[in-house]
């Protein structure tokens, strides 16, 4: 959207919802990338223990590439989102007739499903990370060697699960409030929900960064 600001805009509900779905997709991609970086760190540990130093170096570089740049992008994408909201807010207003439209309800459902898909995806990725930690613990016992990054690295999958549950809750609240407003012939974006989600993202990012720095050699 930030690349299309030369085009005319309007305070149209479907435009706001499309923007919401777009940035949800960005955040899902970012956190999947970070999760892949966390798995790369665990693979580095595994290959080091197996004596495969070349593979270990590959996953070490992959780990650094897939974690720190995406963490920075979280804040950049957040800034773009609120900038785009401000840009749409400067557009013309739409009539009540255009708001009470079956297509608006369908757009609200699509937006709710985008929140649900993002939440379920993050929860599933969190379980994958936790399961891989369990796999390393079992393999460590079989090989009689240490295959973990220490206690500071455990629990990162739980952070993804908590973020996924937050998506489901915020998406549900957003959908219910949107439908109620549309029934009344009104539509207002829920900036407080966006601010809450932003606070959750900031907290999750800060905790993940602290945990990674704590266990980094």
Structural commentary:
There is one protein chain. This protein is mainly α and 217 residues long. The protein is 80% helix and 0% strand. The chain contains 6 helices and no strands. It has helices at residues 13-49, 53-89, 96-99, 102-143, 156-183, 191-215. Helix 1 (13-49) packs antiparallel against helix 2 (53-89), helix 2 (53-89) runs antiparallel to helix 6 and helix 4 packs antiparallel against helix 5 (156-183). The mean pLDDT is 84.
In short:
The chain is mostly helical and 217 residues long. The chain has helices spanning 13-49, 53-89, 96-99, 102-143, 156-183, 191-215.
Characteristic terms for this protein:
80% helix; 217 residues; mainly alpha
> Can you count the helices?
6
Order of helices and strands: HHHHHH
Instruction: Provide the β-strand percentage band.
Output: under 5%
What is the general shape?
elongated
Outline the biggest β-sheet: none
Distance N terminus to C terminus? 40 Å
Provide mean pLDDT, rounded. 84
The chain-level structural class is mainly alpha
Kindly state the percentage of residues in helix: over 70%
Cα gyration radius (Å): 21 Å
List the helices and strands and how they pair.
Elements: H1 13-49, H2 53-89, H3 96-99, H4 102-143, H5 156-183, H6 191-215
Helix pairs in contact: 1-2, 1-4, 2-6, 4-5, 5-6
